[in-house]
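Moderator note: this is an archived Q&A kept for reference. The question asked for a predicted structure of one protein chain; the sequence and the answer are reproduced below.
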Amino acid sequence: MSHANAALTPRHRLIVGRLVVDEGWPVSEVAARFQVSWPTVKRWADRYRAGQSMQDRSSRPYRSPNKTSPQVTRRCIQLRLRLRESPVQLACRSGIAPSTVHRILVGARLNQLSHVDRATGEPVRRYEHDHPGAMLHVDVKKLSNIPDGGGWRYVGRRQGEKHRAATPDKPRNKYRDPLMGKACVHTVIDDHSRVAYAEIHDDETAVTATAVLVRAVEWFNACGVTVERVLSDNGGAHRSHQWRDTCTGLGITHKRTRPYRPQTNGKIERLHRTMADGWAYARCYTSEQERRDAPPAWLRQYNYHRPHTACGNQAPFSRLINVPGQYT
């Protein structure tokens, strides 16, 4: 590709060379026709005569005696991964200028600490499947139920404790705390399009999780998406025989993340944060039922209207084609 200010494209350079060399046109006449200087026409004619390419040559110098050595570059990258220090601190350790360290880190895509995994110190490996349905991410997000009258986030801790104490006790089991209980948000998100599906239940058992998966797959199929794989964590429901048999019956390949490695399922973890900011704690709910009634409207706004940076600041449904109700 020619540079932005090139007067002649490679195709026109070839025409210039043929007019001068093959057809014998004067250099000045060709220059007037293409509105360029005669040295430009002569340069491309000489290259055509010598059988050289009409593409731009690299402007890189033949020799760079002051170029940073590979050893210094490697040391800066290793220190960045191991110590996670700033360019100024790494410059003191390496004996080079901070601007040089910053240039090295930019070239290695390590100029931001968010590009380095906190647990392992390794560069974050990002991926995205090339079509919808190639991979679904599933997970369960547990939220404390809201007492009647509102939770402590909006009414304050003292008043929140009063509301919590006044709420009737719930049946106790291993999925609930002694008083208020938990809301288990079963979430599903498509890896390519970021289209999301969610249901709220009182538990995360294998029976509930598999039922949510079946309904999610049916919902994606109705959107014209054929599900091929599903990625989950190593929770009990996802390691059960019922989950395995359900995936087999749906024709889906089941994959699990590496133990103690939630970053592998990072897309759905990020969805949980978006749901917390946009729905779960977005406003003051006076009861748990009021909050549980809100997700359908929020999911529709998220899927159809909310700009998503991973989708080029378009809504997730923009990556699906010919979906019923896509433009409503």
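Archived answer notes: The chain has 13 helices and five strands.
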